[in-house]
């Protein structure tokens, strides 16, 4: 995740005179609002970042290269999205606590049968995927949308998909001339949705609940399989742990995932052994769900065990 200093210190190359570029003053002004937001003054949302438009170079003024600005704003949007998800979860928990009736200090009768475990309430993950660019792997939109509908139904208890179903799902590329979803975003969504489905309480259904660790369910056999990419790692958003359960320190986890993404791009040398040995301080409230983090790191370690070349997509 980006910090205010990261945004303040970013440097973009200037566009050549014949290139339009983005007006330098407009970009700088917008980034100042981003810095203020990261410091706690909510001036900009992730949606604002994704939809912002800058004027082309004005006569007599300087401009930044569009590709560099767009790439950096993608990182800004992801950072703000993670902050917004975390803030929304904290607000929901606070509202739930306020809605609870006051508890009386009445001891339970000896021998009373414990209440059955309650299903952990799961929010249906939000699935909004970017359209793939010319050099990016694309997936058929209709196929992905139909499968995501089943994922949402499963999290509501109305369908019977398992974690294995999500992690082994395959989609065709779009028809020639038709846009498709960016594969990295779809993979990131399915990995995190699979983690949520693994924690649903068992219930009567045609297919038994999947209890296999994600790293084993996400097999990459000789016939090939989907590998993790730096882009997919950067797109992951973790849930907070259940109330009363400590979570992993957010900054520590993000730092490790930054190294994972850099390694997949070929800019770092993180090993599978280092990933497996990683330990994170725990925080009593909030943080990242340890089960979700560990599940993703299982995937990362397996990928690093088998990957031969860095991902430079």
UniProtKB/TrEMBL annotation:
Localization of this protein: Cytoplasm
UniProt-listed InterPro entries: DivIVA_domain, DivIVA_fam
Cellular component GO terms, alphabetical: cytoplasm
Region annotation Disordered: where it falls in the sequence: 87-140
Protein's GO biological process: cell division
Superkingdom assignment: Bacteria
Chief site of localization: cytoplasm
Biased composition range(s): Basic and acidic residues: 87-129
Keywords for this protein: Cell cycle, Cell division, Coiled coil, Cytoplasm
Protein family membership: Belongs to the DivIVA family.
Protein name: Cell wall synthesis protein Wag31
Protein species of origin: Saccharopolyspora hordei
